[in-house]
């Protein structure tokens, strides 16, 4: 009986993983949503600028399999940082935070993520991520909040991220 339950559980987990991978492939066709930008030196750069809430970012982190250098944003009006407790940080190798409330957000992850860097701009975040990333890592720009202090819209942030990533090779 117990082995049947374990077999059923394993089958369900396999279906869930397959469904996530299929969903990720479909999402890859959506601009600014788990959008593959480029790869060099064995590092994948992913634009997830459309993830302007914690739930979307949680899903994006959950979908990736490789170690992640996560570029997040912060904002003054975000008051409930409890939702960040739901994010599985096991795959997050480093967290780079920009925005007005970067210090407050960094406190939420202290002790959970070994490397946390605070930066003042997306340009600085991409530069820092490139220095931290190693072959087989993914750099994920997934803000987790709407940073209206720095960008008018997520599209503006995503377009700048793509531009900056492509300039890294130069």
How do you describe this structure in short?
The chain has helices at 2-27, 54-63, 102-109, 122-132, 154-168; strands at residues 35-40, 43-47, 68-74, 92-99, 115-118, 138-141.
Helix and strand layout, with pairings?
Blueprint: H1 2-27, E1 35-40, E2 43-47, H2 54-63, E3 68-74, E4 92-99, H3 102-109, E5 115-118, H4 122-132, E6 138-141, H5 154-168
Parallel strand pairs: 2-6, 3-4, 3-6, 4-5
Antiparallel strand pairs: 1-2
Task: Please give a handful of descriptors for the protein shown.
170 residues, alpha/beta, six-stranded mixed beta sheet, 6 strands, 20% strand, globular
Structure report:
- With 170 residues, the chain is α/β, with parallel strands linked by helices.
- The protein has two domains: 1-30; 31-168, Protein-Tyrosine Phosphatase, Chain A (Alpha-Beta Complex), CATH 3.90.190.
- It is built from five helices and six strands, in the order αββαββαβαβα.
- Strands 1-2-6-3-4-5 form a six-stranded mixed sheet, with helices on both faces.
- A hairpin with a 2-residue loop joins strand 1 (35-40) and strand 2.
- Helix 4 (122-132) crosses helix 5 (154-168).
- The relative contact order is 0.20.
Structural class: alpha/beta
Number of domains: 2
> In CATH, what is the homologous superfamily of the largest domain?
Mur ligase, C-terminal domain
- Based on Cα principal axes, name the global outline: globular
Mean pLDDT: 86
Major beta-sheet overview: 6 strands, mixed
Which architecture of the largest domain would the CATH scheme give at its second level?
Alpha-Beta Complex
CATH fold annotation of the largest domain: Protein-Tyrosine Phosphatase, Chain A
- Output the radius of gyration: 17 Å
- Beta-strand percentage range: 15-25%
**Unreliably modeled segments:** none
Give the termini distance in whole angstroms: 60 Å
User: How many helical elements?
Assistant: 5
Q: How many DSSP E strands?
A: 6
Bin the helical content.
40-55%
What is the succession of H and E elements? Answer: HEEHEEHEHEH
The assembly state of the depicted protein chains is: single chain
Strand order, main sheet: write it out: 1-2-6-3-4-5
CATH class of the largest domain: Alpha Beta
């Amino acid at each position: 009986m117990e082995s049947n339950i374990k077999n059923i559980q394993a089958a369900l987990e396999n279906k869930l993983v397959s469904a996530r991978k299929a969903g990720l492939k479909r999402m890859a066709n959506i601009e600014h949503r788990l959008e593959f930008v480029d790869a060099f030196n064995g590092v994948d750069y992913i634009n997830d600028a459309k993830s302007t809430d914690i739930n979307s970012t949680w899903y994006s982190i959950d979908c990736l399999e490789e170690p992640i250098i996560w570029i997040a944003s912060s904002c003054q009006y975000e008051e409930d940082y409890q939702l960040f407790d739901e994010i599985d940080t096991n795959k997050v190798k480093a967290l780079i935070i920009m925005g007005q409330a970067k210090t407050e957000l960094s406190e939420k992850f202290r002790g959970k993520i070994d490397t946390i860097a605070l930066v003042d701009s997306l340009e600085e975040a991409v530069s820092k991520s490139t220095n931290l990333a190693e072959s087989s890592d993914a750099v994920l720009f997934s803000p987790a909040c709407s940073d209206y202090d720095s960008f008018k819209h997520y599209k503006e942030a995503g377009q700048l991220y793509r531009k900056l990533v492509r300039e890294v090779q130069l």
